[in-house]
Fold this sequence. Notes:
Layout: H1 3-15, E1 33-39, H2 44-59, E2 65-72, H3 78-97, E3 102-109, H4 119-136, E4 143-146, E5 152-153, H5 157-167, E6 172-177, H6 185-207, E7 221-224, H7 225-230, H8 241-252, E8 255-264, H9 277-287, E9 293-294, H10 298-301, H11 306-314, H12 324-331, H13 334-344, H14 348-358, H15 361-371, E10 379-380, H16 381-392, H17 400-413
Parallel strand pairs: 1-2, 1-4, 2-3, 6-8
Antiparallel strand pairs: 4-7, 5-8, 6-7, 9-10
Helix pairs in contact: 6-9, 6-16, 6-17, 11-14, 13-14
Amino acid sequence: MNNSNIARAQKYFDRSEELQYSDQVSFAKDLESIVVIPCFDEDWATLSLTLQSLVIAAELSHDLHTVLIVFNCHKDNISAIATNTATLTSFLEWKEQVQSACHFTSINVMFEVPKKSGVGYARKIGMDAAAKYFYHSNKENGIIICLDADTQVASNYFTEILNSFREGSLEAASIHFEHQLPDQIQFRSAIIDYELHLRYFIGMQRLYQLPFAYQTVGSAMACTAEAYVRVGGMVRRQAGEDFYFMQKFAKEGTLKELHSTIVYPSARVSHRVPFGTGKTIQQIEDHHFDELLTYHPDAFQVFGMLDDYLQGLYHQEDGSSSSSLLTYFRENGLESVVEQLRNQSKNVGDFKHRFFQWFNAFSLMKYLHHVHDGEFEKVNISVAIQNYFGSIHLTFSESAEENLLQLRGYDKSNARLPE
């Protein structure tokens, strides 16, 4: 094990307040992966389906795995504590009876979670404990996997994750996901629209070769213990923790995609976080939207001129333009940093790389929100998908579900894999 990695890890562990809970965990020996599942206000019927899918996946794997469930909520949330307590009791009874190659354990922080913390805090508790275990076991390449309590997995889940990390030299992976599609027509339509939006949003970024164009779904992430420590671990956020965490790897160029297995997130209404799948479905239902609105395709098309613009900036040529994007750059301080970026760059390629450290995935979100407050109006997801399909040469269907099936297949076959 690299001495500098050990020193960095020890420094990280010394700073981690969340490691105080790791004493609750008794990990099995010689583990290859640890799955971390935050559990907040979750009933046993739902969690048990997730765990059973992991039991099946473990049967096909010849390696040892642990599933660590972090039961969490604030002490004032009486209802969530009652649900979590009942689920924890059922879990403890179940794990004593289940026969599996997978080891199941838990951490209970139901009365100790800060009030404004959320799923990011719970993930960090579990992932810090997992990273500490791997370092103390001299396995800095041990794999930490994120899952959710209502998300099931394919039977080849463990096998493909481990094979991909071992054979593909992966450090961090965004795993292919496909939402569970409910039978109720209204909910089915809502989740189809939402997943189409997620895939359209990343797909449009890829059309214009934006380097941070990766899905960041909290139940579909994995990384090595070394990589986890290197980027500073999970962020303590009530929501959006997956986006900020995965973008750390995207920023350093180590994030890749794993499409040989699948996770199946739930498609239900949820109050657990202020945005995301569950919240979006709730909003669609509350407002009785006929169709989800998404970003206007033209808001992305301006990125088509970005490559020429950056080359001009590097060579100190006239980069003036009336483009909303370039105007946005100037208004948000690009001119004040461009000379510094140029001086730090060995060539135009290096300059572009440094530019995208300045204009990152979060910057893109701010830009899109800005232009949709004035220049553009959001469009129905079907309009956006029809436009996008024309760009990637897929045949648009009047059936949103058929379009989603096509797009899932397209994303699988066009994954960003390790080189």
